[in-house]
Amino acid sequence: MIEHHAPAPPCPAPPWGGPATLPVRPGTGRFLVLAGVFVCAACGLVYELELVALASYLIGDTVTQASVVLSVMVFAMGIGSLLAKRLRWHAAGAFGAVEAVLALVGGCSAMALYAVFAWTGGWGGMWADGPRCLLVALSLAMGLLIGAEVPLLMELIQRIRRQDAGGAVADLFAADYVGALVGGLAFPFLLLPMFGQLTGALLTGAVNVVAGGALVLGLFRRDLTPRGRRLLLTANLAVLGLLASAAALVDDFERAARHAVYGAEARVAPRTGSEEVVLTGGSGGRPLDLYLDGRLRAGGPGERRYHEALVRPVMAGPHARVLVLGGDGLAVREVLRHRGVRRVDVVEPDPGVLRLARTDPALARLNGHAYADPRVHAVAADAFGRLRGTPPASYDVVIEDLPDPSVTDSTKLYAQEFYGLARRALAADGRLVVHAGPVASRPRVFWTVEATIRAAGLRTAPYRVPGPGAGPAAAPARGAAASRGPGDWGFVLAARTPPGLRPDPGAPRPATLTPAVLAADARAADRTRVAGLPPSTLVHPRYGD
């Protein structure tokens, strides 16, 4: 018995335009497409890392900025992939246009973010200020464009030689992931140290537009009409010209932006690692300010009051052996003014800061040429690692003169584990003092520091000193107003037994910190107390809560 079946419906036409007519053999064509995937993936990751690094420098809180950039970008990549489905019929031209726009947006992203930070400051609100809004917009735009790349490249590679979807995806993703690896390594080890953030982004954009344009105009030019080829070539040349012009003007742009941020007397030290060191003032009667990555580290008219408040109470006890964490030399200057100091070890993570503290005339004058004293021994090293290798009971005094813990790079130096190491390094009657940031504006951060020190087995005496509007700050500098700094400074004095909060009786005169003044400062701090805060640890940092 013969069964009769209805004729099968015709297969739908595939969404690709048939085999491409290439100027090279198919194998070579596939290799060139995969090479294009490799280059585009490397450029895309560099754009992501560039945004994270610059946003962390300008806005602070590396974890937050990385989370914002990566989450928004990954979300936008999914949307871009969906939108690219509508462009598969014109995959070659669409891919060339996407790469041209991505190169322009990604290449200029660092300059745009820095410009908004320098000339607009903030527009107010946690998520409503200019740099953060632009950061989200750039992440969204680049994510959409990067997300559109893979579907279009999939279409192009299938046009060279049709294969199963799994094999094509495997080839594309292999080239994509290897390119991401190269871009991720090139950014910190090549682009950033050799070219800096702005020029590095512009150079990446130039590589991106050349790779995308060469792939389409060289390999798939017959997929485009003559008018389409002319338009794409013109667009690529225009983008390349804009990037080259921006690169030629980048030094003038950086100078103008720094003047907008720091004032006209900004002096930039050579970059060491990824940190930017800027000195302003120091001549003509203007106070000297030292900025690290846009944050005021030391200086201003209240600098001496700050360092006296930091150093003099902790020196009211044995102080022959002193460890200072922070290398501008200003705390060391105050330490050396006390009788009985035999040795001062200084640990500073940035060798550029130590070099400036020794050689810059204004800063060396301000720190009293402390590094010329034979009792001072300075080393450029990570403070956490240095304390781990310090023998027990090595110091009578440990002074933590560091950026406050709301700066993410410093969070581990305000963790319970770090204070445990500091406790081990102290002699039985030794004392520790910590700069814990402004109290009035960030009481939760301040009292988290205090709770963390107590959790490490130390007894504490917190105190708050009013500031005249200058001093080490956590907020990034924005214009000449940046030198105002916080309205107060918060400190925590600690020891194994309850530390008496009093200035060193042998401190040099005149002394503005009397026992009565310090008692009032302790009461002022206690009025802001936030009770019940858990300690901050390496695996659970609390300062962003």
Automatic annotation (TrEMBL):
InterPro entries: MFS_trans_sf, PABS, SAM-dependent_MTases_sf, Spermi_synthase
Gene3D superfamilies to which the protein is assigned, alphabetical: Vaccinia Virus protein VP39
Chain positions recorded as spermidine binding sites: H307, D328
Primary residence: membrane
Residues reported in the UniProt entry to bind S-methyl-5'-thioadenosine: E348, D382, A383
EC number(s) per entry: 2.5.1.16
Active site: residue positions: D401 (proton acceptor)
Bilayer topology annotation: Multi-pass membrane protein
Parts of the chain that traverse the membrane: 31-59, 65-84, 91-114, 134-157, 169-192, 198-219, 231-250
Function: Catalyzes the irreversible transfer of a propylamine group from the amino donor S-adenosylmethioninamine (decarboxy-AdoMet) to putrescine (1,4-diaminobutane) to yield spermidine.
Protein name: Polyamine aminopropyltransferase
Classification lineage: Bacteria, Bacillati, Actinomycetota, Actinomycetes, Kitasatosporales
